[in-house]
Amino acid sequence: MARVFVYGTLKKGQPNYKHMINTAKGLAKFQGRGRTVEKYPLVIAGKYNIPYMLNIPGTGHHVAGEIYSVDDQMLRFLDEFEGCPDMYQRTLMRIEVVEWEGKGSAGEARAAAEGVVECFVYSTTTYPPEWVGLPYHDSYDSSGKHGLSYVLRESR
User: Fold this and answer.
1) Containing structural domain, residue 98
2) What does pLDDT average to in each consecutive run of 10 residues of the chain (156 residues)?
3) Fewest C-beta atoms under 10 Å: which of 1, 7, 29, 109?
4) Which residues carry out catalysis?
């Protein structure tokens, strides 16, 4: 099992969460909530109002999201869903645990107790330069006060 941190449309209550609970795509087990140890710019960009975490460490906010344990099948699905490696790149990042529900190995419990876990995160180093000038968010909600409605893939 791999650990993945999601910060956008794959979180609970968001438009693509249905994929995280679709066992035909693999297994994803909610472990808890967290936020990036380093600051990153989280922007909502493009004509479909997609949330992107720009891989510019030290800029922006500590981005909030959810931590999941996923099997290899789900990881392959997420790579494809996220357009990895072209649109997003999957990299390891340190995530501060805010709330832990996960049950697992002693090592996992110890890491959670220490407050920081390593997770795969889909962020991007490939983006139009003007995205750096967009508003930075610390958390994403598709119906947030930003007023930028996410466009589902089925509607594009």
Assistant:
1) 2-137
2) 97 97 96 96 96 96 97 98 94 93 63 81 95 97 92 90
3) 109
4) 82
